[in-house]
Amino acid sequence: MLIKEWMSRPVITIRHDESLNDAAKLFRSRVISMLPVVKDCALTGIITDGDLKRAMPSDATTLDRFELPALLDDIKVGSIMTKTVITIPLDYTVDEAAGIMLKKGISGMPVMDRSGEMIGIITKSDIFRCFVSFTGVSSTGQIFATRLQDRPGVIKKFTDMIRAKGGRMCSIMTSYDDIEKGYRKVFFHTFDLSPDAF
Questions:
Q1: Following DSSP, what letter does each residue of 42-69 receive, concatenated?
Q2: Which residues of 45-60 are buried (b: 16+ CB within 10 A; e: fewer)?
Q3: Dihedral of CA 29/33/38/43: which sign?
Q4: Which among 87, 126, 171, 178 is placed 20 to 30 Å from 115, CA to CA?
């Protein structure tokens, strides 16, 4: 599950000298949550929809509908962008990207090739799309959640039972979070089992 297979591209960017009004138009017209900011074709920052909302006047402003666009035209993207951009190489995995985003508290990262050129962007939405695809949660079937001892062969015994009842495996997920030592949570997503199989 390499991020180069799940990232969004082409990357929609904005120049550092464009206005907040230009950025707002892009966020409204495209389904995006962040815009890499470029200067002379080089990545110099990033602006998110949250950054834009924080930079906007509050609803309590006394500006009228004609004054507000003029104000936003005067504020340049470069003045509110985040200048320290966390990027990720294209050969990292989706789970590595998810771990970085969780640790850093960010919603996405530009994806860079080996020469340092930005070739895509990976966001929480892309990771969610990957998760849905690999777990099969968008497909109908049966999901079994169980607590199993963490020892070799235990999962095979369960999958053999599924097959013996005429079922097919879609995905198997395990977790060691919030469970006592020596055990793990296991989630089996199966197909073709009748309701009275067990």
A1: EEEEEEEHHHHHHHSPPTT----TTHHH
A2: bbbbbebbeebeeeee
A3: negative
A4: 126
What own/partner pairs with CB < 8 Å and gap ≥ 24 does 22-31 have? 22/77, 23/47, 23/52, 23/77, 24/52, 24/56, 24/72, 27/52
Q: How many Å apart are CA 94 and CA 123, to the nearest integer?
A: 10
Q: Which two tokens stand for residue 106?
A: 């960010």
> What is this structure's pTM?
0.75
Does position 112 have pLDDT exceeding 50, yes or no?
yes
Assign 70 a pLDDT band (cuts: 50, 70, 90). low
Residues 87 and 112: beta-carbon distance below 8 Å: yes
How much is the pLDDT for 186?
A: 94
| Structural tokens at position 189 | 């997503």
CA pseudo-torsion sign 96, 102, 107, 109:
negative
What lies within 8 Å, CB to CB, of 8 at 6+ separation is 120, 121, 122, 123, 126
